[in-house]
């Protein structure tokens, strides 16, 4: 899918540097208003000009596999910036992190990365980074965003991004494919990914023989230890002397791609996978709920971004996608998100991005000074939030006080944004099931009138509907209104 950079608007001149863009001094991402810009030093500017004259790069941009990029119009760039050239990128609808992706999402992003690297190598370029963070999403289509990573390849040198690729992409995939362990908590714990020495003890004995483990974990880790005292220049000289060539590097990349295609997520049972069938809704409830959500989303200006919290199989995310530019479907079970991603991919749905996220423990800020990777709350500036069958799970299931739940929902929207929320009454069968596992009298304030008062204190309730079953009420509230 071909994408272009939007037309240049009039923007303020205040420059905001991107906290995640500081590790490469040759280029730096910053923001001016809503524009995403990248400053290049003299060497990086030369690489950019060579890149635009190549065959592979324009083709990848035209296919939507690399983010649309152009040299920024001079009127857009504030005076006095210390860059030889400034680029302008298309804006990603919602920035996510690899530990919020499902297994197949990470694998598809990895396959795009190897496809781009192979195309670059064949045309005399390489990428100096291999991080999973260099990819983002348009719906379920991955897109490579680190244009500053491309540089001319030098014969006899290995791929500089290989270690990053292993730590943020390949090792997480091996962990889930071979051991059935969800990689998300491991990847979230360290911004640089999983170290080889952390994973090697889990792959001893016959596990060493599983696809990719011996070559990319044990041998790679041993090579790192052996060359720990050697300089990068020494290592490159050794490789050149041993006959390492661009053709051998391209063969290695194709071998990684072949390995990635062999890796599959182990099927696992999940309580949430069958939730829509077992949650107790009648056909009348479902119809009334869908009609209410449709009316709520079409009551005002078309939403730019909708968050669907507790999306499960994506029923309401798909509905929202018909009335919004972009939808982020949040669900805590990695297996459920993986199934949803595969289904959306098969449907060709380009407006919905599914993410793995525990609503009671959402992604925090991470990396350098805790801001290199922004937390979910800092990224979630939505025009509308769907919180359907979520409040009781947080308030009863996770012991989050009801006022905290309402404050949190209000904080996920821009001022004037809408929250569409479902309150499950204490006598509802699902609420009763949760309460049965809690000490009696623990939630005296979990009542419909208390919830409604809290919601009205944070916004203006514009619509309400009690579902036909009589134990659930839907609200639409405009926050700050």
As residue ranges, the low-confidence spans are none
Number of helices: 18
Distance between the termini: 39 Å
Number of strands: 16
Indicate the proportion of strand residues: 15-25%
Please tell me what the overall shape is: globular
Helix- and strand-based class? alpha/beta
Q: C-alpha Rg, in Å?
A: 24 Å
- Output mean pLDDT: 90
Largest sheet: 7 strands, mixed
Query: How much helical structure, as a percent, in the residues?
Result: 25-40%
Strands side by side in the biggest sheet: 12-11-10-13-14-16-15
Commentary on this structure:
This protein is of the alpha/beta class. Helix content is 39%, strand content 18%. It has 18 helices and 16 strands. It has helices at 42-52, 56-62, 103-122, 162-179, 184-189, 196-199, 213-226, 232-241, 246-262, 275-278, 283-297, 315-321, 334-347, 376-379, 391-397, 402-411, 429-435, 448-458, and strands spanning 15-17, 27-32, 35-40, 69-71, 85-89, 125-127, 135-138, 141-144, 150-152, 305-309, 326-331, 352-356, 382-387, 413-424, 459-466, 472-479. Strands 12-11-10-13-14-16-15 form a 7-stranded mixed sheet, sandwiched between helices. α12 links the parallel β10 and β11. α3 (103-122) packs antiparallel against α9 (246-262) and α16 packs parallel to α18. The longest helix is centred in the first third of the chain and has 20 residues, at 103-122. The chain is globular. 41% of the residues are buried. The model has no long low-confidence stretch (mean pLDDT 90).
